[in-house]
Amino acid sequence: MAFDPALLDWLLDADPALRWQVERDLAGAPPDVWVATRARIATEGFGAQLLALQDPDGQWAGGAFFPKDFDFRGPEAAEDAGQPWTATTWTLNTLRDWGLDAAALAGTAELLARNSRWEYGSLPYWGGEVDCCINAYTLANGAWLGADVSGIARWFLKHRMADGGWNCEWVEGSTRSSFHSTLNSLKGLLYYEDATGGSRAQRAVRRAAEEYLLQRHLLRTLSEGEPVGPWATRFAYPFRWFYSALNAADYFRAAALHDGAAPDPRLADAIEAIRAARRPDGTWLQELRHPGRVWFDVDVAPGEPSKWLTFYGTRVLAWWDGQPVPR
Questions:
Q1: In 3-state terms, what secondary structure has residue 79?
Q2: Domain assignment of residue 122, yes or no
Q3: Which residues partner with 305 through β-bridges?
Q4: pLDDT tens figures, 82-111
Q5: Contact of 253 with 311, CB cutoff 8 Å
Q6: What residues make up the domain containing 140?
Q7: Which one of 38, 53, 190, 248 has the largest count of C-beta atoms within 10 Å of its C-beta?
Q8: Quick one: CA dihedral 130, 131, 133, 134, positive or negative?
Q9: Which ranges in the chain belong to alpha helices (H)?
Q10: Interatomic CA distance for residues 169 and 181, integer angstroms
Q11: Looking at the domain assignment, is residue 79 inside a domain?
């Protein structure tokens, strides 16, 4: 697919965490070029800044999922205050998503095994806890850093709901899957499978959970076909734990490439929602910023053209438009 040279130049003028992906997936650069750019994440820009913030005990902000100084009864814990994004799990998610070489975090898996405990029940870090989103992040981060997280992989087999997906509120009695929880779980399972080969049972569960979202065309309720909510078509980077059509379509692109499969035609409605959000100049706007404490901002303010969202949107559409799609 041919891209507007000016748009491509704009995307390439970015932090190494984004630039190497643009080089590989949009610019068609040879591997020696994007591999060299990717290596710079550890020493330049956003990646180097986050690495410098790691605590001596292997954590960030002194905690597993929440900063050590987080007051669970204070103003920051209010529903509209947002999740703090500075603790260990969120920082590892970010560095992994950016493509940091795990060698830059040599020894971190062992440090976390010794020093980090979940705020829920003081459970050991690499054993996971009861929240499926947290377990999905830990599954992927463990596979990335070389920790034994096979127990978490088995946990997902036992905790999938009858309707096909997962819900982080299962421990509170919920019996229906959640778009957010299911997507986060799928992303963790796919990363683990890609890194380790997975198992036949894990692949079967992943594909069955994909059906949960595909049957709903990534956007609608199954029973009435109504939109699940405005959040599904509001795009923001970083994605964090929030579901959106763009976040989900990017997952299904990765899953299709992993499986050697063509795009599923049931993605069509989500793809058109993504296409509709593209501006005439080829960019996507940052529509909101998820509230919560951050180390530093990595994208633009709401209302401005986002390089990250433009990269993801352009990549998804290029994948979709480059394949014959049965109608």
A1: helix
A2: yes
A3: 285
A4: 899 999 999 999 999 999 999 999 999 999
A5: no
A6: 60-215
A7: 248
A8: negative
A9: 5-12, 16-25, 31-39, 45-52, 88-98, 108-115, 132-145, 150-159, 179-196, 200-214, 245-259, 268-276, 307-321
A10: 9
A11: yes
Chain-centre distance of CA 91, in angstroms? 12
- Integer CA distances (angstroms), 92 to 98, 194, 209, in order: 10, 18, 25
Burial of 160 (0-12, 13-18, 19+ CB in 10 A): buried
Q: What's the token pair of residue 40?
A: 């710079």
- Which value, in Å, is the radius of gyration of the alpha carbons in the chain? 19
What letter represents residue 208's amino acid?
A
Q: How many domains does the chain have?
A: 1
Q: Which amino acid is at 124?
A: P
Domain assignment present for residue 32? The answer is no
Query: Rounded to an integer, what distance in angstroms lies between the CA atom of residue 246 and that of residue 6?
Result: 23
The residue behind tokens 């079967």 is: 204
pTM of the predicted model, to two decimals? Answer: 0.95
**Tokens found for residue 321:** 């438009």
More confident residue, 294 or 175: 294
